[in-house]
Specification:
about 110 residues; mainly alpha; elongated
């Protein structure tokens, strides 16, 4: 799957309606984090493809765009962790498998 297809898949996971409760907020943050990671991957790929083919200002702009996208991912990761820490556990989705181990969330990075 190309990075663009992965990004589109992550964007499709974003809910169309505002969250109705804590579980919905958790899912929204998790989906947004996944989309942010995919966007950073896309920008990194574009920067790699453009290296040597564009001028230095364009290369610097692409590098800055990638860093900002990566920072967005990190900020969403912090928001999700903080939300999960302070939310009532009974209101959050259960991401444990049959053995009791967590899969880390509903969405891949």
């Amino acid at each position: 799957m190309s990075e663009i297809e992965a990004l589109l898949d992550a964007l499709r996971r974003l809910p169309a309606r505002p969250p109705a409760g804590p579980g919905g907020v958790h899912d929204l943050l998790d989906a947004a984090k996944s989309a942010a990671a995919r966007w950073a991957d896309v920008l990194d790929e574009i920067g790699s493809c453009a290296h040597g083919l564009v001028g230095p200002r364009a290369e610097a702009a692409l590098a800055a765009a990638f860093r900002r996208a990566e920072q967005s991912y990190v900020e969403l990761e912090i928001a999700l962790a903080d939300f999960t820490e302070f939310a009532d556990p009974g209101t959050l989705p259960d991401f444990t498998d049959k053995t009791g181990k967590s899969d880390g969330g509903a969405y891949p990075r």
